[in-house]
Amino acid sequence: MNKINHYGVNSLVYGMLLQVKLHKMKRTQMILLLSPNEIRLIQMLDPQGTFSTYFDLTQISDIQQKEEPQLKIINQKGAYLKVYFESVFQLITFKEGLDYLIKEANRIQKQLDSYNQIWSSALKLITKSDLDMDNKLNFKEFLFMIGELQIEIQERKLIQIFEKNQKNNQLDEATLYRLLMDITRRHELKELYQKYSSKQEGLFEDPLQAMLMTDKDLQQFYKIEQGQADYQPKRKQYNFYDFQNLIFSEDNSIFQPKQVDQSQPITKYLINSSHNTYLERNQLTGESSCFAYQDAFKMGFKCVELDCWDGENGEPKVTHGHTLVNDIKFKDVIITVRDFAFYKDDNPAILSLEMHCCLKQQKRIAEILQSILGDMLFVIKDYKQARISTLHQLQRKVLVKYKADDQFLQEKLQLHSSTLFFAQSHDDMQFKTQEYDDHKHQANIKQFSQTLDDHSTKICRELLEITSLYAVSLKLDKQPELVWIVSSVSEDKIQDIIKKSHGKFFEYVENYFVRIYPLGLRFDSSNYDPFPSWSAGAQMVALNIQTKDLFMLQNYGMFLNSSYVLKANQDVKMNIHVRIISATNLVWEDEKRRQEEIVDPYIKIRVAGNHDDVSKSEKWRTEVVKDNGYHPIFNYQCSIQLRHAQQDVIYFQAYSYSILGDSLLGQYCLSPLNLRTGYRIVPLLNSHFKPLANCSVLVQIKIEY
């Protein structure tokens, strides 16, 4: 570590007095320091000693640096902390120290979780509950800890537990850990553990403590129950809590990654696509930022949209025109593309340029793309190639989508006339299936060119030279000479087009791209059902990433394995038998609400995708478990029959029941093709699609093909 990092770390260890603004609170002065008792937590203290709170270093999802000396620290629940600095040097010192402590906290978290999840969670929980910071909990602090666990225990019972275990009206760390061990024991695993345990040691009141599972026992369990014959234990024997730790570890997730065939032309794949990617909220008054592009790439989106407008000082900008949305520099967006486009995988990124710039600033855009992206930028070498390049050939390449120009492409293709119908209306492509003679063809080109002149600016030669996907009108009656084309259709027209094409649309999307985008009237940036377009073979079904609704959850599940999903030629039939056994740590997303109300959880499972599979599926849900979010037991069984599993996703949602309306606690979605059999955990996400710490549903999965 260099000197400035040492200084930054030491500053946080001993405390820094800074101006901060907590989420939904006023700006105030606070002391920020590394918790003396738990190095995964930063403590924030009011200088007068009237207020104290923590933020968890392992839960930080993003740190955003603004132009003025301030940082915005965002956690996985979307809550934020703004920190203001007196100088840029102070900001850099703080940030480098914080970056180091975050890295260390995540390393320690991983080590502790792999060793003992209960102890890992207990350390944080006890520290947060220790309001007077004396390393012990009084009865009031003990009640706070139980509230954080989201378990409804009668106060009379809590008084009895406290009185039985207290010393000088306090519970020490060792006692609290023992109590938490008892509370957090997963009794639903008892029979399974006993079934495979062959060794007994010592005399204990609790028979589970006397039983041990050998490495051979554990191998047998993984072979028979989990379908993993190649599992290699890491030690010679395991007690019950070791076994419980294995079951609830992230390595035992329900999701099974699979290799993607990269040998096919990229038109054979569905591509994770976004619309108005620059927006953080709605398209009328929302804020735009480069961090929205970062978030998109981190979520695995590969087709992103850039609305390009003339900016100040000859520098083009990205914004939503004629609205209250703020501007960001085009150059800054492309730097973000360079740094984050291949964050999740190396599959090609597609920049969909919606162009509103004058010719001069379009030339500047071409310069920026070439200078910043360099060799990442894919440029067509052979305009006459019969098939578009494969996914493998385009790894770590950035493709640019831009308006086509008839004269330019006819020159590249060495044609005197063309059936491409290159020109397009401003955004919504025209659907034509009738035949044209030469006269009508030329008249049509002239008409479309006039439309372009009326609604847009001139086309830039420099941009055309580095474009790899040329935007053209959708024509299904003739085969275009160029494979590097894409047609955009709005969500309200695509189904009518598919229906009237009599199968031509399905043939077309085997070799040419079609992009679907949301209706312009969705001012709230809501989403539409992507499955009808995916089922028809449309590759780019663009959704509003800033809106984390049910359709976005289904999109998450569709592309969880890869940002490019190969369109299957054969149906996959599956009978999936699911047993929802229990859940862990189902709590309110709002931390304040946790101390005021206990959840009444239930779990539901749904299928989305192929129309036949969805129509034949049931509305599966467990019973409601009253007043227990920490460890509800469900033992609910259902069977899911799929006949087109390659087109489907399965999603799990945890809710808290209320007569006034149920509240979402957590969610998860995946393709049935990625399901793992056996006893697995469903790792739940919050409303922002960020992982919820130690929050999962325990299921048993059996599959018949």
Automatic annotation (TrEMBL):
Leading EC class: hydrolase
Residue stretches spanning the membrane: none
Coiled-coil blocks: none
Gene Ontology molecular function, alphabetical: phosphatidylinositol-4,5-bisphosphate phospholipase C activity
C2 domain ranges (all copies): 554-686
InterPro entries, per database record: C2_dom, EF_Hand_1_Ca_BS, PI-PLC_fam, PLipase_C_PInositol-sp_X_dom, PLipase_C_Pinositol-sp_Y
Name of the protein described by the UniProt record: phosphoinositide phospholipase C
Keywords of this entry: Lipid degradation, Lipid metabolism, Transducer
EC nos: 3.1.4.11
